[in-house]
């Protein structure tokens, strides 16, 4: 889909070994495939079905999402930061689109 | 309340007909279907109720379209003892599957929050699986209200 | 027909459920602080001539989970559309080759507090003007662009972005400007006029029954300081005139057009009823 803008909130820095909270939000209708449109026909399913977070190339957290997740999916989770580096976030759409963003974090 | 019962009923029919829920209410999963999915996820193990897993939900959801939920598992989250995954089910939705969270020792804590859809008042179930093969479960009932006012 | 029967059955069930609901009626005694730093005014002393003892934000009538969504501008899902509004602010459109920013610069400075004083008197059109119509006026007269249609996503996003620059500022409209007073009087009259098959006025719910339940819905004072508001039901921003029309439709009456004289008068009057409350745009409601 066009015009999808992920938002991510990651602290700019952390102490070595600190567990930080990461918040993510993305604008997406999460069309369940179970809803009827104005013409009475079912609106085809189109959702974000997977989200992943990596840090310096290693997996931190991921999830599989179903149509029961609300529109504009919000996902919050934790990460343990042992070194400075880059978080990479990606959201996978049913239509094959991948929405990505990155955030750097420094060590205090 | 000054509104009469009849006025409230009339208002509610209009509001329900104009509803824009993410789901149709005609079909729904069952607790049995959810139990079957849990069995597959747990590899046949009987999950221990409560304990290290906490599922937090509102007691009453003002709107079933956006219900905040949180899961948290007490775990050392080390390389040889961590929570691998937590799965969420909604027993009364058209399809019971909601989400599966996958953690790693780099997660630091086995905690996640999201917002989900609930088609009606029902149980939400969370099941956690650890790297040592332990399986925990927690269950919460969420009442879903149908508002009087559309818009 | 089947839907109606189901809905009726659900209504009966819900009506029966309401007395069993755990949370108490009436507004909560909580403070709204956004991002841990913006202290919001959710209870205000009424302006002279106001029928209620205290002016209360609709935030106080929501459940804890809904209230929390508004306390963090990252978690507030309405902020996604506000961000779209920020992009539109800087996007050139129309024959004059201008964006909003071409004339108004940085909205965080130029629009600070502005949204809290709308609707204002517009001498040229000889009627009150709200933020939506002011944006359209800029677009047609200054930018050589087309006016946004009512409830176009761009209209909601840009209106919310402009109003968000007043987050925390108390609502204060100037009734001394032009003929604002006579529009206030017309809005006042409409507020108390019963309409529709259910024969309800705005006051029936929001003045006489705020704090009570209409079925499972907890009625607020109907203040408009949070519009455009993110509603969980629509999962998007809802404009004020959309909400007005929804309320009037719920009384089973024909509803006036957006930005019609009736709804502009109602906007002037209802905005005044919320005098002193912080602008909450985008508020989060059920």
From TrEMBL, chain A:
Domain Sulphur oxidation protein SoxZ: 9-102
Coiled-coil segments: none
Pfam families: SoxZ
Protein name as it appears in the record: Sulfur-oxidizing protein SoxZ
Species for this entry: Thalassospira tepidiphila
Lineage summary: Bacteria, Pseudomonadati, Pseudomonadota, Alphaproteobacteria, Rhodospirillales
From TrEMBL, chain B:
Keyword Lyase assigned: no
Transmembrane stretches, start-end: none
Signal peptide (from-to): 1-29
Domain (Ig-like SoxY): residue spans on this chain: 39-149
Keyword set, alphabetical order: Signal
Domain of life: Bacteria
Cross-referenced InterPro entries: SoxY, SoxY_sf, Sulphur_oxidation_SoxY, TAT_signal
Protein name according to UniProt: Sulfur-oxidizing protein SoxY
TrEMBL record, chain C:
Principal localisation: periplasm
Positions of the Cytochrome c domain: 80-166
UniProt keyword annotations, A-Z: Electron transport, Heme, Iron, Metal-binding, Periplasm, Signal, Transferase, Transport
Localisation per UniProt entry: Periplasm
Enzyme Commission no: 2.8.5.2
Top-level EC class: transferase
Reactions this protein catalyses: S-sulfanyl-L-cysteinyl-[SoxY protein] + thiosulfate + 2 Fe(III)-[cytochrome c] = S-(2-sulfodisulfanyl)-L-cysteinyl-[SoxY protein] + 2 Fe(II)-[cytochrome c] + 2 H(+); L-cysteinyl-[SoxY protein] + thiosulfate + 2 Fe(III)-[cytochrome c] = S-sulfosulfanyl-L-cysteinyl-[SoxY protein] + 2 Fe(II)-[cytochrome c] + 2 H(+)
Signal peptide per UniProt: 1-24
UniProt KW NADP keyword: no
Keyword Metal-binding annotated: yes
InterPro entries, sorted: Cyt_c-like_dom, Cyt_c-like_dom_sf, SoxA
One Pfam family of this chain: SoxA-TsdA_cyt-c
Subunit structure: Heterodimer of SoxA and SoxX.
Family: Belongs to the SoxA family.
Protein name from the UniProt record: SoxAX cytochrome complex subunit A
Source organism (scientific name): Thalassospira tepidiphila
């Amino acid at each position: 889909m066009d015009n999808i803008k992920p938002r991510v909130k990651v602290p700019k820095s952390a102490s070595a070994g600190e567990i930080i909270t990461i918040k993510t939000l993305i604008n997406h209708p999460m069309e369940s495939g179970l809803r009827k449109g104005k013409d009475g026909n079912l609106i085809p399913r189109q959702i974000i079905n997977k989200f992943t977070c990596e840090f310096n190339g290693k997996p931190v957290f991921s999830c599989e999402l179903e149509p029961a997740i609300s529109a504009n999916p919000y996902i919050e989770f934790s990460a343990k930061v042992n070194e400075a580096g880059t978080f990479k976030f990606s959201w996978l759409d049913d239509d094959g689109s991948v929405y990505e963003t990155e955030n750097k974090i420094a060590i205090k | 309340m000054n509104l009469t019962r009849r006025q409230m009923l009339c208002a509610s029919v209009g509001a329900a007909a104009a509803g824009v829920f993410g789901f149709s209410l005609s079909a729904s999963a069952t607790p049995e279907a959810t139990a079957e999915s849990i069995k597959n996820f747990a590899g046949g193990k009987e999950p221990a109720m409560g304990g290290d897993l906490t599922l937090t939900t509102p007691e009453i959801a003002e709107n079933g379209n956006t219900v905040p939920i949180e899961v948290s598992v007490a775990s050392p989250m080390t390389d040889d003892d961590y929570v691998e995954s937590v799965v969420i089910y909604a027993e009364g939705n058209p399809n019971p599957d909601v989400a599966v969270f996958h953690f790693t020792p780099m997660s630091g804590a086995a905690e996640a929050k999201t917002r989900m859809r609930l088609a009606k008042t029902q149980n939400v179930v969370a099941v956690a699986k650890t790297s040592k093969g332990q399986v925990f479960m927690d269950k919460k009932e969420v009442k879903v209200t149908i508002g009087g006012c559309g818009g | 027909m089947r839907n109606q029967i189901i809905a009726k059955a659900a209504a009966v069930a819900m009506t029966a459920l309401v007395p069993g609901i755990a949370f108490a009626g009436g507004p909560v005694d909580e403070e709204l602080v956004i991002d841990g730093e913006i202290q919001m005014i959710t209870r205000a002393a009424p302006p002279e001539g106001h029928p209620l003892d205290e002016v209360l934000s609709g935030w106080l009538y929501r459940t804890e989970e809904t209230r929390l969504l508004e306390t963090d501008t990252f978690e507030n899902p309405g902020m996604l559309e506000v961000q779209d509004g920020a992009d539109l602010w800087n996007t050139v459109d129309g024959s004059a080759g201008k964006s909003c920013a071409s004339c108004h610069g940085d909205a965080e400075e130029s629009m600070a507090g502005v949204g809290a004083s709308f609707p204002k008197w517009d001498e040229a059109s000889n009627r009150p003007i709200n933020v939506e119509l002011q944006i359209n006026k800029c677009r047609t007269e200054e930018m050589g662009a087309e006016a946004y249609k009512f409830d176009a996503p761009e209209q909601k996003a840009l209106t919310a972005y402009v109003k968000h620059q007043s987050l925390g500022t108390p609502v204060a409209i100037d009734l001394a400007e032009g003929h604002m007073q006579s529009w206030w009087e017309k809005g006042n009259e409409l507020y108390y006029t019963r309409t529709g098959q259910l024969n309800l006025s705005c006051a029936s719910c929001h003045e006489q029954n705020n704090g009570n339940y209409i079925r499972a819905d907890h009625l607020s004072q109907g203040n408009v300081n949070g519009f455009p508001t993110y509603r969980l039901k629509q999962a998007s921003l809802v404009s004020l005139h959309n909400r007005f029309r929804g309320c009037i439709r719920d009384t089973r009456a024909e509803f006036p057009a957006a930005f019609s004289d009736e709804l502009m008068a109602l906007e002037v009057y209802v905005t005044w009823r919320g005098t002193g409350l912080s602008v909450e745009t985008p508020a989060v409601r059920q």
